[in-house]
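Residues determine shape. We examine one folded chain.
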Amino acid sequence: MKHLLLPALVSCLLMLNAAAGDAVDPLEKQVACSYSYKSFDDAVGQIEQKTGFKVSCPKEVSELMQTIFMGMGMGTGAENSPKVKAKDFLDSICSSIGLAWKYDKATNVVSLDLYWKKDDPRSVPELFHYLSDHQGNSAEWQAAFDALLSKSQNYEKAWKVRQKSCFQNVFMPFAPATPKVILFKPVVAVSLEKYKLLMLCQPIQMYPGHGSVSYYWFKDDGTLLGADLMNTGHRCALVDATIDNEYGAYSDRASELQMIVKMNTRDFSVATFALDANGLKLTRFADIHGAEKENSQGVGASLMVPDKQ
C-alpha cells in the first residue's frame, strides 16, 4: 500500500508547487534598481533585460521619444545598487522617460504609452468651459486639460506638443512639475478670426537651461485648432505675457501678444507676436525700454520642428 501512496504524494506536492509558482506575481520579483541609457531604445532594452518582460509601445510614440532622447544620457548609479521589486523599477525608469506602463501577465508584455492621456465622461465643450471658469494650476485643472487634449478631435494636434513639453531641461529631461498657466484669453488672429489662446510655461529646473512655453489655440466650443512648443531662450525664463486687443474690443485688427523674458535673472526683453494659421509669429524684439535688439537667443522659434504637424 505504501508503494502506491508515495507516487500520489509526490504528484500532489508537484501540483502544489506548480500552483504556488503560478500564484507568484511577476511584478513582485526582485530586480536591480539601477539603469543607464542614452536613447529610447536603450531604455526599452533596460526594461527587457532587467525584468524579463517584453515591451510594446505605439509606433508614433516610439518615434517621437527617439528624437527626444537622441544622445541624452540618463542613469541612476552603479550596477551593484540594491534590488527592488520589478513594479518599482518600472515606476522609476518609466517616470524618467515620461511614459506610463501597464503589465499583461498573460502575454508577459509591458505596454508603454503617454502618461498624461485621460478618459473623462465630460464632453469637449464641458471640459473647455471648466478650464475657462477655473483657471489655475491645480491638479484638477491639469487633469481636465489633459482630458480635453485626449479627446479624439483634439488628440492629433495636441499629443506631440503635450509630450515634448515635459522634456525641455538640460539636466532633467523629464520635468514632472505642473506647467504654470501664463494666460488663457481671447485673441484675434491675423485672419481676424476669434479664438482662445492658452499658454503654459515650462519652468527651468536649474541654470543653464532653455526656457519654453507650450501654447494651444481653440474655438469657443473647445475644438483645438493648433498647438506648438516655443523657445523662450537659452538661460531665459518667461516672466509674463499679455494680449493687446482681446476680441470684443477692436476686432478689425489682430491682437498682439507681448512676452517679457528674463535672461540670466537680470536682462529683460519684450517679444511681440501675432497669431496666424501656423501659430505665434514674432513681429518685434526689443529691450525693456522699447529699443529693438537682436534676437540672439532664438526667442519664438518652434521647438517642434520637424515634428510639428
Remarks:
- Helices lie at 2-23, 40-51, 59-68, 86-96, 124-133, 139-150, 152-164.
- Residues 169-173 have pLDDT under 50 and may be disordered.
- The chain has two domains: 2-114, 124-287.
- The first helix runs from residue 2 to 23.
